[in-house]
C-alpha cells in the first residue's frame, strides 16, 4: 500500500468536513428544499434514472432496505414520486417523479448548479478541471472499502432476474465444475442448457426467480428457484454454482439465503434440490440452512452412472403433513 503522510490525511479530512458543512448536510434540510439529505438524493436519482427500483436505490444511496422503504413512502405521501409495476418483471415496481417531483428535481438542480458555478468562478485558470477530476477519483476510491489496511478488495454485486448470456455462462460453469464427476463431453452441459432455456421464459412469474454474481457482463455465480415445475407448493432449487475464484468469500451463502428468503415469502411448504454425491462444501452449506438428505441413488441421466442425492428443506414453522 502506498505510504500517505499524516499531514495529507489531516488536510483531506479537514477539507471533507468543510465540504459537508458548506453543502448544508448538517442542516435538517438541504438544497433549498424542505427535504432531508436522503430525500434530496432520492429525488435526484429517480429523476436521473426514471424507472429505478427500490432495490436500485438501496445500492445507490447505500442505505438499509427499511430506510429506503420509509423514505419512499414519505415521498409518495408528499406527491413527489409514483410507483408503477414493471412491464418486464411483475414483481418489481419502477419509481418515477410526479409533476410535483419534477418541479422539486428542477429546483434542486438549480440550487446545486448555482453552488458549483459560484465556487468555480472563484477558482482560477485550469484548476477547476483539476478539482473535478480529483473529486471524481477520490469518490471512486472511497467506494472501494479497505480491509485492515489491505489493498482494495474487489466488490461483487448480486443481481436479480434474468441476465443476458446467463444460460451459456451457468451451463459452462456446471460443465467445468462437475465434468470430472459426471464425465466430460456435451451431454451434461446440454441437459443444463436445455433445462435453463425452458425455465428462463418463465422467470417473470412471481413463484420463480434467479440471483447472479455478474462481473464485466459475465455471470460467474448463480442460483435459481423454480416454483412451478414440481407442483404441490414445492419449490425447486436449481443451478446453484459459483466460479472457483469466488469460493470462500461468502457469496454462496448470500445467494442461498436470498433464494430461501424468496421461498419463505412465497409460502412454499418445501424446497427440493438434487445434487451429486461428493460435493461436500455444498452439502455442508445446505445442511446449515435446514436441508436434510432424503434420498440417494445411482442415476445415469448425465451419460455416466453417478450417485445423486436429494435434499429437502421444510418451511420453518410449517406443520408436518398429516
UniProtKB/TrEMBL annotation:
The keyword Zinc-finger does not apply. Residues 5-140 form the HTH marR-type domain. Coiled coil: none annotated. The keyword Repressor does not apply. Keywords: Transferase. Residues 157-313 form the N-acetyltransferase domain. CDD domains: NAT_SF (cd04301). This is Bifunctional helix-turn-helix transcriptional regulator/GNAT family N-acetyltransferase.
Amino acid at each position: 500500500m502506498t505510504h500517505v503522510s499524516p499531514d495529507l490525511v489531516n488536510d483531506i479530512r479537514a477539507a471533507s468536513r468543510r465540504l459537508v458543512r458548506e453543502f448544508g448536510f448538517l442542516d435538517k434540510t438541504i438544497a433549498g428544499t424542505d427535504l432531508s439529505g436522503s430525500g434530496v438524493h432520492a429525488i435526484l436519482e429517480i429523476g436521473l434514472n426514471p424507472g429505478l427500483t427500490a432495490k436500485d436505490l438501496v445500492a445507490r444511496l447505500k442505505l438499509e432496505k427499511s430506510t429506503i422503504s420509509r423514505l419512499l413512502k414519505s415521498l409518495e405521501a408528499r406527491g413527489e414520486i409514483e410507483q408503477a409495476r414493471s412491464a418486464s418483471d411483475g414483481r418489481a415496481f419502477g419509481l418515477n417523479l410526479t409533476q410535483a417531483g419534477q418541479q422539486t428535481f428542477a429546483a434542486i438542480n438549480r440550487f446545486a448548479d448555482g453552488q458549483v458555478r459560484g465556487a468555480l468562478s472563484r477558482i482560477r485558470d485550469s484548476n477547476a478541471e483539476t478539482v473535478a477530476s480529483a473529486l471524481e477519483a477520490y469518490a471512486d476510491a472511497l467506494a472501494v472499502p479497505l480491509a485492515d489496511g489491505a489493498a482494495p478488495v474487489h466488490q461483487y454485486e448480486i443481481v436479480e432476474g434474468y441476465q443476458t448470456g446467463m444460460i451459456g455462462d451457468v451451463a459452462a460453469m456446471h460443465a467445468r465444475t462437475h465434468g470430472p464427476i459426471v464425465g466430460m463431453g456435451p451431454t451434461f452441459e446440454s441437459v443444463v442448457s436445455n433445462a435453463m432455456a425452458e425455465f428462463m421464459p418463465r422467470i417473470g412469474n412471481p413463484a420463480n426467480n434467479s440471483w447472479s454474481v455478474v462481473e464485466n457482463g459475465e455471470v460467474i455465480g448463480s442460483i435459481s428457484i423454480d416454483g412451478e415445475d414440481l407442483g404441490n407448493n414445492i419449490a425447486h432449487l436449481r443451478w446453484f454454482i459459483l466460479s472457483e475464484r469466488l469460493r470462500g468469500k461468502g457469496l454462496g451463502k448470500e445467494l442461498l439465503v436470498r433464494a430461501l428468503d424468496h421461498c419463505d415469502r412465497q409460502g412454499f411448504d418445501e424446497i427440493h434440490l438434487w445434487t451429486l454425491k461428493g460435493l461436500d462444501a455444498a452439502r455442508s452449506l445446505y445442511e446449515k440452512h435446514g436441508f436434510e438428505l432424503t434420498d440417494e441413488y445411482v442415476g445415469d441421466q448425465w451419460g455416466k452412472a453417478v450417485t445423486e442425492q436429494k435434499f429437502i428443506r421444510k418451511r420453518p414453522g410449517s406443520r408436518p403433513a398429516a
